[in-house]
Amino acid sequence: MKSPCLIWCLACFAWVVALPNALGQDDHPEPDARGFFVTVGDPVPDFSLTAIDGQTFSRDNLLGKPYVLQFTASWCSVCRAEMPHLESEVWQGGKGILVLGVDLDEPVEKVERFADQTGITYPIAPDPGGAVFSSIAAPKSGVTRNVVVNASGRIVMLTRLFDAEEFEAMKAMIAGLNP
Fold it and tell me: How many Å apart are CA 160 and CA 38, to the nearest integer?
């Protein structure tokens, strides 16, 4: 017969091992060097966002269309530097692709002011609690990310920060996605 202490210790060990998964903390592998949980070729994680203009966007209702999820925040200076380029060269640039700004965990009023300040016309949606961001990248790994998704819902490119060479490569990738 096993001792009650041994049985209790084994039960505690099993509970401690299972706890992170039960709390949803073991849902992701380790992030890559740039903080991404996802890789090129992965299906985009499920999401649903409501833009400040009331439009709703989700993985399901965007299936069949290529798009860019642009992770941003009003406090991010690099985001502010990249956004005019996304506006003019991708959204307004005749590329035929949706750009959806995903604002990391800021209230709607702040997101509205941010959109006005930057002059963007592409849709931007608050990401309350950073739920969508956390399905893509590690917490505190930084915004200024673009996730380019093809019409099949698969990730075809990931960018981090605003690098001119990487941005040009992203534009070329997007040009190849047009229907």
Answer: 13
- According to DSSP, residue 154 is labeled B
Residue 170 in contact with residue 147, Cβ under 8 Å? no
The three-state secondary structure class of 43 is: strand
pLDDT tens by residue, 61-117: 999 999 999 999 999 999 999 999 999 999 998 767 999 999 999 999 999 999 999
Q: Which residues have a Cβ under 8 Å from the Cβ of 75 and sit 6 or more positions away?
A: none
Alpha-carbon distance 173 to 162, whole Å? Answer: 16
Question: Can you tell me whether residue 49 is helix, strand or coil?
Answer: strand
Write down the architecture of domain 36-175 according to CATH. 3-Layer(aba) Sandwich (3.40)
Give me 51's structure tokens. Answer: 């833009």
Domain ranges of the chain: 36-175
Q: What is the CA 9 to chain-centroid distance, rounded?
A: 41
Residues with Cβ within 8 Å of residue 113, at least 6 apart in sequence: 74
Task: Report the candidate in 23, 143, 34 with the shortest Cα–Cα distance to residue 79.
Answer: 143
- The model carries a pTM of 0.83
Bridge-partner residues for 154, per DSSP? 43
